[in-house]
Amino acid sequence: MTEPNAIPYWAQYAAAAAFGLSALACRPGRLKAAGPSLLLAGFLLQGWFLLGLGRSSGIFLPNTIVSLEVFLPWALAALALLHRFFSDRKDAAHTAVILIFAVALLTSLQTRVLAAQGSLVYPPGPMHPVGWVTAFFFTESVAYAAFFMACWFALGHLRRRDLPGTFHNYLILSFVLFSLSQVLGAVWSYLGWAVPFHLSSDRHYNSAAFWLFLALYLHLRFLPGWPAPRRARLVAIAFIPVLYFRYLAYFLGKLTS
After folding, report:
1. Which of 7, 76, 166, 240 is the most exposed place for a label (fewest CB within 10 A)?
2. C-alpha closest to that of 22 among 74, 77, 79
3. What is the pTM of this model?
């Protein structure tokens, strides 16, 4: 379908710029004090872009917002802001803006490519009850965002040997949210297709593998042979296959279809 001109792409680009400036504020200098404000500005601008995307079909469809990859920078920024608000290590939390900027930049490029193909937004069909679809994709997307935050702080732990609890807590959050998303997905499956949730596509197998990895990690915490640095190394390495199979493979499939 052809994308309408009402989508505020400028807000997406402005959000990426704000995240980039906020990332520069991680280094000592004049921008350091402005870092949190720039992060908040990027969060709000990305939210404005997502709202425009949700209204692009003429009616507001929240599932359009949370099911696309462009939701990921917003979710990451939300987690970083909450981390800054509740954590005593605010400077360490702010370093995640580097990750957010990189993701925002990549999703901005992806958005333009898909929009040029006319495959950015598709309206929901009769098998997509909006409430359950939105709840499923929201919890799943935030779970992946929490996992990527865990990967970032795992790298930080390997560099500085501090904050061992930070990446672990994000892994727990990812596990809880992803488990909840699978329950919501099962309800959607029953309401949309009148069948129980089952493994029927590559995406479902990827989800099962991701959940099993999170469960495996949580069990490793109790094994003496897996101290924090070793677990951090495992989490950091897992970033690559999770990013590829959950996001890149799907995007490349759209390009070649």
Report:
1. 240
2. 77
3. 0.90
